[in-house]
Amino acid sequence: MPTRPQTLPHRHVLTLPAEPSAVRTARETAEQALVEWGIGLRHRTVDPALLILSELVTNSVRHAAAVSPTVTVTYAAGADCLAFAVHDRHPYQPPLYGAVTGTGTGGLGTVMELLLGLHGTAVVRPDADGGGKSIWITLPL
């Protein structure tokens, strides 16, 4: 699986207001992009990937909207993997793997259980100024 999503041949970026409707729009955009890229919506990775995406966008809307009026989703794919990132301008960087060991709560635990079940990876990448972050998810196809 490639470790650098920016090198994947397919890429789409979407910036949305940090409000509840962003979750549905991000998911629908993902479905459209996957179809355009030739990745069938019935592929075994797609449903869990869409749930992971929905949970991450929901977290940004719930927890970051007060300081981050927008959320940006980056979608990327190649022949052997699917990747996406959810970015907001809130400085908090959640301990992703802590969600699996019991120190995390809520939707992030679900995200990490699905991710690990699919043998994917997750990384929090802080903005250069420390004022925000992206959570990158990479899943094998």
Describe the structure.
With 141 residues, the chain is α+β, with helices and mostly antiparallel strands. The protein contains four helices and five strands. It has helices at 21-36, 46-64, 98-101, 107-117, and strands at 10-17, 70-77, 81-88, 121-126, 133-140. The protein has a five-stranded antiparallel β-sheet with strand order 1-2-3-5-4, with helices on one face. The protein starts with 9 loop residues before the first strand and ends with a strand. 30% of the residues are buried. The model has no long low-confidence stretch (mean pLDDT 91).
In terms of DSSP E residues, the strand content is 25-35%
Gross geometry: globular
The end-to-end span amounts to 9 Å
Question: How many individual helices?
Answer: 4
Class based on secondary structure composition and strand pairing: alpha+beta
Largest sheet: 5 strands, antiparallel
Can you give keywords for this protein?
alpha+beta, globular, five-stranded antiparallel sheet, 141 residues
Short recap of the structure:
This protein is of the alpha+beta class and 141 residues long. 35% of the residues lie in helices and 27% in strands.
Describe the protein's topology.
Elements: E1 10-17, H1 21-36, H2 46-64, E2 70-77, E3 81-88, H3 98-101, H4 107-117, E4 121-126, E5 133-140
Antiparallel strand pairs: 1-2, 2-3, 3-5, 4-5
Helix pairs in contact: 1-2, 2-4
